[in-house]
Amino acid sequence: MRYRWMTVTALLLIVALAPLSPARADLEVTGPDGRRILLKEDGTWRYADAEQEGAKERPVVKGEGVLKLERLVELGPNCKIGFRMQNDTDYEIRSIVPRFIIYRTNGVAFEGRTLGFYSINPGNSFYRETMFQGINCKEIGRIQVTGGDRCVMGDLDNFSYVGGACLERVRVVPSDIVRFDK
């Protein structure tokens, strides 16, 4: 009996409050860059002045980042690998964090690891090393570069997620040391 009374009361409360709940409609907010964003009730969004933005010219992205495999150093059963990111663009590469997947000579993936490159001004480069334990350099048949989807470089930033757009702006230079590609 007690539970029945609570159930009836809850239903009456829901029915009474339903007309007071706000109707779902489009909502306009201001983004971190000052642009107005229209949040649609169907879960999508667009810039409020999208029609006007089509008329404006988008900035032309010039150049590319260049990623090179510079060295493999055998350290017993481990391999230390050095990479260099060169900024050949006209903007700062503030951050990009690609994933490097190591494949054995038989084609089986051994391990994947991310490595960040930060604050590279135009014309400069940044060198990073990482150690892969449990595989010596002779056992590595390929190093594949993937990911890097969250970057801050040029017009791409943490708020403009487009899968693969960051890595598209980076050229991976083939290596004489071991197969190195995207």
Short description:
The chain is mostly beta strands and 182 residues long.
What does this structure look like?
With 182 residues, the protein is mostly beta strands. It has two domains: 22-56; 63-181, Immunoglobulin-like. 14% of the residues lie in helices and 45% in strands. The longest helix has 16 residues, at 2-17. The mean pLDDT is 83.
Question: Mind sketching the topology for me?
Answer:
Blueprint: H1 2-17, E1 27-30, E2 36-39, E3 45-47, H2 50-55, E4 63-75, E5 78-89, E6 93-96, E7 98-104, E8 109-114, E9 117-120, E10 125-132, E11 140-147, E12 152-153, H3 165-168, E13 170-172, E14 179-181
Parallel strand pairs: 4-13, 11-14
Antiparallel strand pairs: 1-2, 2-3, 4-5, 5-10, 6-9, 6-12, 7-8, 7-11
Rg, rounded, reads: 26 Å
Order of helices and strands: HEEEHEEEEEEEEEHEE
β-strand number: 14
Whole-number total of structural domains: 2
Our count of helices gives 3
Span between N and C termini?
A: 67 Å
- Mean pLDDT metric: 83
Distinctive features:
four-stranded mixed sheet, 14% helix, 2 domains, single chain, mainly beta, 182 residues, Immunoglobulin-like
